[in-house]
Amino acid sequence: MFEEWVDMYSPDIERFAFQYGCSLVEAAEVAEETFHTIYTNLEKLADGKRYIYKTALEKLGQVEQTNPRLASPIPFKEDAEFHSEIIKLDEKYRVPLVLHLFHEFSFEEINEVMAIPLDEVVANIQAARELLREAIGYPPQDVFKKRVEFLWMSYDRLPLLFNVVNVSRGEHTPVINESKKLSRKEWITVIILGFLLIGIVGSTYFTGEEWELRSDRKYIDKLKKEYAKKVDEKKAILGVSEDIFNQIPFIADANEQVNTMLVGLENKNREGGKIDRQLADDKLLEVNEMMKLPSELADELFAAPLVNDVEKSMMFAEHYLKKADGIKYSLYELFADDYDKLQESLANGTFDAEVILSQKDEYSESTRSAIAALINQDLALPQLPITSTTQRTIRLMDSVFIGRLRAALHEAAGSYLTQYEKEPFIMNEKLLYSLDETIEIMEEMEKTLVAARQNQWLGHVVEGTMINLLEMILQGRTIEEFKSSDGSISEVHRNAWKQLASLGPDSGLGVIMAKVVEEMEESDWKRSELYSSLDDWRVYEAYSLAVEGNLEHFGMKPLKEMYDDLTFRLPNDQFNVEIENLFNEFSDAYDRDVLKNVHPLLILDLYYYANDKEDSVMMWHLTEPASREASLDEYETNDWVKEIALLDVTDSIRYNPSLIMDDGHKVLVPIEFERNGKMYYNVWMTYAKDQVWQVEKIVIEEGEL
């Protein structure tokens, strides 16, 4: 361990001594004396870098620099002059400045090493910078920064004279507390040595790559230590094991990114390339942001509330809750030993986190450490399965803390917190909350979605939850009775539906429910054409059209029933004329209304017809926008590359409506290709909101078809 510290820090201490004002020989002896002292007091090395620099500073305070400065070993005039101005500074300015600029010490670290107040550290560094700028003619800040970088490079090119043999010596005569009077012969020797050093260092300007590589290796080691320190800090805050800590998704992502960066830096250094330190520093700052715990994000929010910023509030809420969930569910396995007892305490309403933490004989250490971590972060207990609706609100969540979050965010972000605080909303295929409570939740979610659309921010999680709740309400899967004895919608549901309808034209819910209520009232609340068409996933289709003001485009007939099962035997003569007419009509202005409600298999046939005609522009218009590999301009200007003609090697193609798939955001269907009795699904079609089928992707696998 001691040898590692010597290898890592002896060059830094030698440089530090030179920057303090020592000659190269004196600087090496100071470094040797520093590590000799440490060698005889190894128990103090636990303080690491701070102890090493403290020891060096003590040695420097004892040095009597009597050797004449006949010639600077720095070969470049500007750098030599800059160095000269630094060592002329008073020690109280010089030392903190050197530590800050050339050894990358933080103000806090300088405060620890020099044992002076923190505000004095900051003030002295600022004063030192101004004194230096004055001495070199007040250059602009960017020029001053560049001068510092050049001088740093010159420092790195200086020869290192440190001799490790002197560290563990029995007797050693250092330069400390010695007064040397040089004879005539010694003066001549010093002058010759000075010129020799200038020659040596001057030559390293052209062959100094090894010094840069060595400096980069030290820099990489510093990055590793900084990141390890940051990890230890976060882990200590949570109080969990390293294995559990590394399972947290955002921590795992940070680890992966840092490891990838470090491997890249080490490979580049090994290959002799110079690394980009600024890029690495920026990446480490980015990773530090990634590693922030929910409690740290909350503290930042409370210090700078976002009540007037819709988009930032919603971004914060999504980011915060994603991290909160990441921690909660990473800790889940720690509850395994006490799962049944926790379940029982939740069920009977006696759950008390503080009591559990004190019951060492009743609960395992892992359970108590997990609950302590959750309390530390003001997080909820991971949702354990519950069997009764009466237990829906028993959570570890601190409602006061959630209230503080809510008060610091724009009201449009409130539904994120409500969703986090009150989920699950559905249990055993029924709403868990009353209609009044559910409607209130949905109204809050719709505020979020309206704000999201106005600010180009997508809230898909909120949207999906809200549509699920609407489906439950429309299907009567609620706590309250759905229908009256005469078959009409019950009074409590009528009121709920009217409340949703009152949300107005800016709300997708409002538009749909206003239409449903209007039709229901015309039939004494017994039937509505729109209501009867809102089966399962079709609620999402209607909602998507409603928010765009196009609910009238909603087909009352389910999509699976709108397009017949259709098969082409090849060659296909049945639709040749129709395909040619479609080609001519659509190519006139690429008006999508021409293709509205056209059968998906005819759209695919049109795509291949355009392929045969080498009409890449039409093929571009027939492709689903997110799947296009180039812009329209690129399609128009690039040379034509003909698609592989699947139709030429296929016995038949078929559209099968039973294969339609919907994930709540996109409707997809594969096209069946038959060849020699085998089925292949190489083409996928997607259904756009304007009721036009598009080619989503064509996959050609070697050896297929």
Question: What percentage of residues falls in helices of 4 or more residues?
Answer: 55-70%
Structural class call reads mainly alpha
Number of helices: 31
Overall residue-averaged pLDDT value:
81
Query: What is the count of structural domains?
Result: 4
Largest sheet: 6 strands, antiparallel
The whole-angstrom Rg is 37 Å
End-to-end span in angstroms? 65 Å
Strand content: 5-15%
What ranges have pLDDT less than 50 throughout 5 or more consecutive residues?
170-182, 190-208, 383-397
The outline comes out as: elongated
Number of strands: 8
What does this structure look like?
α3 packs across α6, α23 (491-501) crosses α24 and α24 packs across α26 (538-547). The chain has helices spanning 2-20, 24-39, 49-62, 77-88, 91-102, 107-114, 118-135, 141-157, 184-207, 209-238, 242-247, 249-270, 277-290, 294-303, 310-330, 339-347, 353-358, 365-376, 399-408, 414-422, 435-454, 460-474, 491-501, 508-522, 529-533, 538-547, 559-562, 576-589, 600-612, 616-621, 632-637; strands at residues 426-427, 430-431, 566-569, 652-655, 661-662, 667-675, 678-687, 693-698. The protein is mostly helical and 705 residues long. It folds into four domains: 2-211, no CATH class; 212-291; 424-556, no CATH class; 560-698, Nuclear Transport Factor 2, Chain: A, CATH 3.10.450. Residues 170-182, 190-208 and 383-397 have low confidence and may be disordered. The two termini are 65 Å apart.
Topology:
Blueprint: H1 2-20, H2 24-39, H3 49-62, H4 77-88, H5 91-102, H6 107-114, H7 118-135, H8 141-157, H9 184-207, H10 209-238, H11 242-247, H12 249-270, H13 277-290, H14 294-303, H15 310-330, H16 339-347, H17 353-358, H18 365-376, H19 399-408, H20 414-422, E1 426-427, E2 430-431, H21 435-454, H22 460-474, H23 491-501, H24 508-522, H25 529-533, H26 538-547, H27 559-562, E3 566-569, H28 576-589, H29 600-612, H30 616-621, H31 632-637, E4 652-655, E5 661-662, E6 667-675, E7 678-687, E8 693-698
Antiparallel strand pairs: 1-2, 3-4, 4-6, 5-6, 6-7, 7-8
Helix pairs in contact: 1-2, 1-3, 2-3, 3-6, 4-8, 5-7, 10-12, 10-13, 12-13, 20-21, 21-22, 21-23, 23-24, 24-26, 28-29
